[in-house]
Amino acid sequence: MAEADGVARIRVRSDAYGIGEPSIMATAPAVANATYNAIGVRMRALPMNPAAILAALGRVPQRSGPP
Fold first, then answer.
1. Crossing angle, helix 27-39 and helix 50-58, to 10 degrees?
2. Are 27 and 47 in contact (CB under 8 A)?
3. What is the CA radius of gyration of the chain?
4. How far is C-alpha 47 from the chain's CA centre?
5. Are the C-beta atoms of residues 44 and 37 closer than 8 Å to each other?
6. Extended beta strands in the chain, E state
7. pLDDT, tens digit, for every residue of 6-40?
8. d(CA 19, CA 67)
9. Residue 63: pLDDT above 80?
10. Under a CB-based contact definition with an 8 Å cutoff, are residues 51 and 43 in contact?
11. Non-local CB neighbours of 28 within 8 Å, separated by 6+ positions
């Protein structure tokens, strides 16, 4: 990095997010809502993996007849 020796480097401590991070915050709620719309089970905990979804499906009362 000999060519970078003339560049001043400073470190700033901040709680600011990177430009892509705010969009990541809405991902889990969007997936949870899509799961609810698809299978009718509200997922309220992470991780929302297949095992958690199958366990939640086991707690759903069976419907009788058409909706």
1. 40
2. no
3. 22
4. 9
5. no
6. none
7. 666 677 676 666 666 666 678 888 999 999 999 89
8. 44
9. no
10. no
11. 46, 48
Query: What's the CA gap between 39 and 15, in Å, rounded?
Result: 38
Q: Is the peptide bond before 47 cis (omega within 30 degrees of 0)?
A: yes
| Distances 41 to 33, 38, 46 between C-alpha atoms, Å | 9, 8, 14
Contact 57, 50 (CB under 8 A): no
Instruction: Tell me what pLDDT residue 34 has.
Output: 93
Neighbour tally for 41: CB within 10 Å = 18
Kindly list the distances between the CA atom of residue 44 and the CA atoms of 4, 8, 26, in Å, as whole numbers in the listed order.
48, 47, 14
Using pLDDT thresholds of 50, 70 and 90, give the confidence band for residue 5: low
Three-state secondary-structure class, residue 22: helix
Note if the pTM is more than 0.90.
no
Identity at 52, one-letter amino acid code = A
